[in-house]
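Hi R.,

Here's the chain you asked about this morning:
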Amino acid sequence: MSYNPSNILASFPDERSVAGPFTGAYQTLGSVISGLPIMVIFDNQSTVSVEVSLNGTSTWKTFAVGEALVLDMRANKGKADSFSFPIGTQVYVKGTAGTGSFRMSLVTG
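And here is the predicted structure, written out as tokens:
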């Protein structure tokens, strides 16, 4: 099987985290997303439930203690730039007190 080297994208791993104790208000989870995510892993490594928001005002998903979510933005679709978080998306997290951290790991193209 051969491959076309011109179809290979440069991939860049990136990790962001917010450590407890959480403030009870939305906090930014690192900086804005600067490349199209290929793979995103949300991982609640804290001792409290954590809400995730993509706009800082409404909850997209609540992660229970120890819960993780893997989003494969290209699963079985090849290169699909239209199925991704837009460049410039800011992710926010909200929890109250607790210890540990909430992490988001990205591979962007």
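One quick note: The chain has a mean pLDDT of 86.

Cheers,
M.
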